[in-house]
Amino acid sequence: MDHELFDPSQFKADLALKRSPIPAFKKALRHASEVLQARFEGGRDIHKLIHDRAWFTDQILRQAWSALACPDDPDIALLAGGGYGRGELHPHSDIDLLILLRDGSGDRYNEAISQFLTLLWDIGLEVGQSVRTVSECQQEARADVTVITNLMESRLLVGDESLRQAMLEAVGPQHMWTSAEFFRAKRAEQHDRHAKFNDTEYNLEPNVKSSPGGLRDIQTIGWVALRHFGTSNLRELVGQGFLNEPEYNILAGGRAFLWQVRFALHTLAGRAEDRLLFDHQRALARLFGFEDNDAKLAVERFMQKYYRIVMSLSELNDLLMQHFEEILLRDAESADIQPLNSRFQVRNHYIEVTHPQVFKRTPFALLEIFVLMAQHQEIRGVRADSIRLLRDHRHLIDDDFRSDIRNTSLFVELLRCREGVHRNLRRMNRYGILGRYLPEFGRIVGQMQHDLFHIYTVDAHTLNLIKHLRKLGRPDYQEKYPLAWKIFCRLPKPDLLYMAGLYHDIAKGRGGDHSELGALDATLFCQRHKLPAWDTHLVSWLVEHHLIMSTTAQRKDISDPEVIHDFAVQLGNQVRLDYLYVLTIADINATNPTLWNSWRASLLRQLYTETKRALRRGLDNPPNRAQQIADTQHAAMDILVRSGIDEEDVEALWTQLGEDYFLRHTASDIAWHTEAIAQHPEHRGPLVLIKETAQREFEGATQIFLYTPEQHDQFAVTAAAMDQLNLSIQDARIITTSNRFSLDTYIVLDADGGPIGDNPERIREIKRGLLEALSDPDAYPAIIQRRVPRQLKHFAFDPEVTIFTDHSAQHTILELSAPDRPGLLAKMGKIFLDFDISVQNARIVTLGERVDDVFVITDADNQPLSDPLLCERLQNTIIRTLSYGTRENNMPQSMDI
């Protein structure tokens, strides 16, 4: 009896003070909550904490039952179910109750049951209850695996134990749900649950209870064991020979860790919250004693521990579920054994060792098994006993093992397999082999980056990149990635690409430039694996420069021949360009599925094509701007003349345009713009053209062309109007003619990141909205005030604004890195308007929770910003406008986990 938590004598005295029992119950509940919270903050063992709460709830329910129900009647009993039935109760966990009636007891308990449940409600105890007879339990359990699961782990609170035993007998495996049937249902249930979390332990906001590797996976093992062995006690399963001691320690230790996290989550949220939301991750990291260091944030270190533990639990769940499958489903199968070599054979499509000493006698078999699975696609996986042996012998992978030519040859052989490379690297990671063989990879296992851009841990992202590389070589991906597919299929050595992929982010979390550090690791890897010098240099170069293609495409004006030439000089040859392009495509897709859109695809394709042309021309032949402009004009004029447009009218317009216009646009677009302007009387107001284009440059995005008398507030007005129209600006090209007209081209996507499409009504809506805004710019469109999404609020940081002048180009460049938020570009437009600043060009890049935008700006006289005080005020205004504070959570002081 825990008198500090619940004192029966004090409770009875409190009951006697008032006519209603409710105050006494509420007082007891309040007192227990305070005691348990103090014990939690004092670092009490988590097992005792959750059992303490369950024990206290037992006392309250028994008191409530004795006060209002029929405590001595043998035909009615009160049972605990679910986690509460197991004696596990977190601060806001469900309290599942079953009121069990003997068959034929009729409705004579209805009033008592109603009074009992009403009392529980009145005292603030939220329960989930069912009222069933033994026969009804049997009927419900036969139809629903969830019901049978709850009944199996029920626990008597009040009543006759023989009544519960009668119910258990009625729903026993001799009547329904044999061990095999129950296992199939639970396996399917787990498969569906995992699918809801994309079959990964590495969600940014994982569910401690339901995500892969979470508490539910441990419970599933217990439930299947309970149905088959008659016990779900992990320690007893060791005695049954189902678990070994190390596996028991992983399960028990992992469960204790997840219980601590779940208990803390409930306490922090004040409700039954099982999701590790960004709202709570930082506070939990502080609570559990993690601190920031030079390489990693405290929250990243906490989450890495979480991910590593759930990954080990998920791995063990796989092993044990497969073990159950072999025991319950395959024992009766006739064995179809196909020998592979003296060390391995395939039994009913699963590979296994030929004898238990294989890995001890021939350690290279620790890698050979994965090569064999890649070479034999009919193999579905590894048998449970052989997985155990893999786990038990992975300690043999040491420096001598890593230097052994047999092992280095096997690893390279795996990377050169035609199929199964990603699948077996993933298996190696899951079984703890990959991180042993490549210790530098082992350091990134479970390592997260606390942002919305990288939605996977570094190891998951890396293996995901390998998967995307493999997909690029498949015929069914030719339509989605035509250029990348074509290039991949002609690469002389795809395995070099996989090596670069393995190492491109391997130095994340060490501090310093991860690309440079990773290149050093990649060089050592190649040298250890005896690669030729040329291959080694290529792999190392790809790792060191894996970001330059996406950075150049998204942040620089790739219509500028000088930008293309400088990029071509960095690459040096066509081979690097081919490998880098494919690696970049895979890297973007593997980082975050929402990053890949038609606009990014078109930018990378344009950069690849123009760089290829520059390399063919020769790096000693820098681009001739004048010749490129002349060629573009000539091609555009040919189109216009064929359309019947007068050459003199065209030349009259073109003389008012600067060189940048002809560098930034294709000949077909110049012809499109020119023809529309020639046919548009000036008195009719702004000209708005919208084209869903399949051209190489803008493929998949929508181009909006505006022609209107120059207004100083035009960018601000346009940005605000497009924001109202739920358009996302990807690129802005703004040209002012010598007669003060503005030719603006905006590349846009819908707010969801997709193209506008050919929806006539949507196009009419956009055109109407823009015409209204541009026709009356003084009626400035209101910037829509949208709620900042919950996740973005937890990644607030001070905006960074850099302003510098390019005197050779006669403009000022403003670089902005800031937290993303609704209406950000419209706010920037308003700031520029307030400062009397004109926007000449803009590159818009959104990466998860942050934006990295570049604006080319001038003052009202189209001159660079020359006043340092003006630049300082502009900088401060942007920072002040785009900043919003972070919310710190109040939690107890740190505790050890």
Automatic annotation (TrEMBL):
The cofactor(s) it depends on are: Mg(2+)
Q: Which residues form the HD domain?
A: 458-580
Question: Which reaction equation describes what this protein catalyses?
Answer: guanosine 3',5'-bis(diphosphate) + H2O = GDP + diphosphate + H(+); [protein-PII]-uridylyl-L-tyrosine + H2O = [protein-PII]-L-tyrosine + UMP + H(+); [protein-PII]-L-tyrosine + UTP = [protein-PII]-uridylyl-L-tyrosine + diphosphate
Q: Which domain of life is it from?
A: Bacteria
- Provide the GO biological process annotations: regulation of nitrogen utilization
- What GO MF terms are annotated? [protein-PII] uridylyltransferase activity; guanosine-3',5'-bis(diphosphate) 3'-diphosphatase activity; phosphoric diester hydrolase activity
Give the EC number: 2.7.7.59, 3.1.4.-
Which keywords, in A-to-Z order, does the entry hold? Hydrolase, Magnesium, Multifunctional enzyme, Nucleotidyltransferase, Repeat, Transferase
Comment field on protein domains: Has four distinct domains: an N-terminal nucleotidyltransferase (NT) domain responsible for UTase activity, a central HD domain that encodes UR activity, and two C-terminal ACT domains that seem to have a role in glutamine sensing.
Family the UniProt entry places it in? Belongs to the GlnD family.
Q: What name appears for this protein in its UniProt entry?
A: Bifunctional uridylyltransferase/uridylyl-removing enzyme
